[in-house]
Predict the 3D structure of the following.
Amino acid sequence: MTTATHDHDHDHDHHGPAKGITRWLYTTNHKDIGTMYLWFSFAMFLLGGTFAMVIRAELFQPGLQLVSPEFFNQMTTMHGLVMVFGAVMPAFVGLANWMIPMMIGAPDMALPRMNNLSFWILPFAFALLVSTLFMEGGGPNFGWTFYAPLSTTYAPPSTTYFIFAVHIMGASSIMGAINIVATILNMRAPGMTMMKMPLFVWTWLITSYLLIAVMPVLAGVVTMMLFDIHFATSFFDAAGGGSPILFQHLFWFFGHPEVYIMILPAFGIVSAIIPAFARKPLFGYSSMVYATASIAFLSFIVWGHHMFTVGIPFLGQAFFMWSTMLIAVPTGVKVFNWVTTMFRGSMTFETPMLFALAFVVLFTIGGFSGLMLAVAPVDFQYHDTYFVVAHFHYVLVPGAVFSIMAAVYYWLPKWSGRMYNETMGKVHFWLSFVGVNILFFPQHFLGLAGMPRRIPDYALQFTNFNMISSVGGFLFGLSQLLFLYIVVHTVVAGKKAPAKPWDGAEGLEWTVDSPAPYHTFSTPPKIN
Amino acid sequence: MQRKLLRGSLALPALLIGSWAQAGWQLNMPRGVTDISHQVYDLHMLTLWVCVVIGVLVFGVMFYSMYKHRKSKGAVSADFHESTKVELAWTLIPAAVIFGIGVKATYVLADMYNVDDAEMTVEVVGYQWRWRYRYLSDDPDTEVTFFSNMATDWDEINNLVDKNPNYLLDVDEPMVLPTGTKVRFILTSADVIHSWWVPALAVKKDAVPGIANEAWTIINEPGTYRGQCTELCGKDHGFMPVVVEAVTPEEFDAWLAVKQDEARQMAELTGRDWSMAELMERGQSVYNTSCASCHQVDGSGNAPTFPALRGSDYVRGDIDDVIDIILNGKRGSMMPAFRDQLSEVDTAAVTTYIRNAWGNNVGDMVTPVDILDIKAGQ
């Protein structure tokens, strides 16, 4: 706002943003880029959510009512791709952009121009991906895991566009990750030692290494698909000497770390919010750091548990079972630490805390089903059923997505300088909480009773729980429009927020004004 | 109007109770009918209860804190934030619990992988979107092979008629197996990856092109056990059920003898003379089972992926081209190769049918022996 008066004085005044669209196109400011990432991810969240609504509407009752099986498969595929690569990952990158420099006392990200590039290629990637829905033969219809040869020899012609879209998303993620590593390792304020960093910074540092390690594998595997489709290679074609199983090994070597990429930053967020509203320091800070690192390491050696039914030999099967079960140990440490942080605290339950508490309970439920899935002989019964769908939606929706919502409510006063309406925030929370459980809990029962995933129609005994699940889905979906309203209302007309709206909050971000000035920490803060 | 509403509101709970009775509310995994499925079920329940106990403890402490240690109740926060002893305890105790589950699971897993001493072998081949079962035998003349297609009428799926109780889980010909016999399965696929699953047997194994997977079962009780394909395999992934019918060994032998007889008759059928009317009649039923889900019952197709056959210049053109595309499929399209899926009789019948049905009226026909010659020549 103050910049308007200084507008003519460009050489002199570096403190304000440019005006109009160029502010957003050319910006190298971590706050602007963070904001764009967050709005982009929310748009993708609504788009991916719309696809999910189509799925739930079709599954409301047995029989085909609304869409054809071909289109249904495109919906499940696009829902997964858009939510994973368009909603959850960019949201975390947005939070990293906004918060990491402010948390470590840095003036900006280490590589600001690359920061701009890594955001601005994303809209093109998703435009390319979504445009396939309007092409002849339809969009990708082989699931977000795009197993060959369904995604190569038997794929629609639009698959080539899908491959290039994934390439671009991967490039964006790798650039984002390099930027975060460079920022954290080089730009900490004097005195901000590694073991003083907020856990959100730690979890993102580890996440970045995961990204740098596995996104090239994803790029490799889609390139091999490209060659199989257009250049007569046979990486994944058994008839030419290749193997469809090779595809799955490569994909899940990327895919398993990928699921931790979507949850580790959530751990960081919850580790900031719970102490703030329990008014008590986080229990076991260093064990949290080590647990995160252990989970990240284990994520590289468990990929085979996605492939228990493909026929890996007994020893391989046993290895992947044991290594997967091991993950429960560091994950358990985290949950125990959060609970102990609350124990004998002085708790209040504002919206960010409500989302964080729901995260702890519902993520843990997702962890429990994860432990059950790890037991290989039993996994034969769970594999590719709705039990798996329930499992990963529990860790991703009331897990990752709830943590992002908690983060938005927690830091929105800092970003916008305005306070959201607490009553509306709580209404949003309760609608989401009730909706998400009605949506996903019955899917455990469906899976155990034998309903396979990715089917457009089902046998009659699955009717009741599918109906209930769909009702929960519509409730959860509609509640997110309220979220949009709350955020817009806050930004436009919220009450002015103080520099530190939460009395128990800790961290450098609360030492600057609300809204955070366009440039913060141009001179490094003092850390004691 | 009010009376209607009242009746409606009374009918709703009745409906729910009614569907309860029809087991529409099944919450848990079925225990199954094999020793392995029982072990799997026990392991499932063990892990579930371990999770429940841990959940009650952890959430118990959490809810206690949320109730007791809230600011509105005047709680003042303590300051402790570290304890190596506690951290060590809640690392080691869960590790020990997991170790216990892991050991038990490893034994069950080893059992599942032991396919030794099988008394018979059935080959399972996945196709888009049907299963082919072959009962291996040392004597190739007595080898029984057949396809198992979903038997649910598309009118039921499209909500034109009422759905029968086994909606989507019925096949035209189930896999028949003897009880009390160790049966080995060899699984592979002719096109994309499928997965063969029968929950009551706790057998699920992927059918992967180019790879032969193994699994086994010993069924304890006679009965009909239903499952589905569980690996996304394209458009009709949701419409390829698996049905296993377990019968006593005596009944099985009788069934096998009949099937072997049918195989011999089929060979005779191929050799005999066929009239146009016979081919058209058989062709229509083959078409409705194998072709109609894409090309539609009336041959109108579903452009652009599934071209219309009615009025198609290609279908009405050179008969050898038509037979070639049916036998070998069309690369780069969704059209699969039906070489192994259709017998010579069925190939001849369906070719004749599509060239003459729906006003295509080419007027020619092809015999099973012609098809046999074409196949031999390729």
In short: Chain A is about 65% helix and 0% strand.
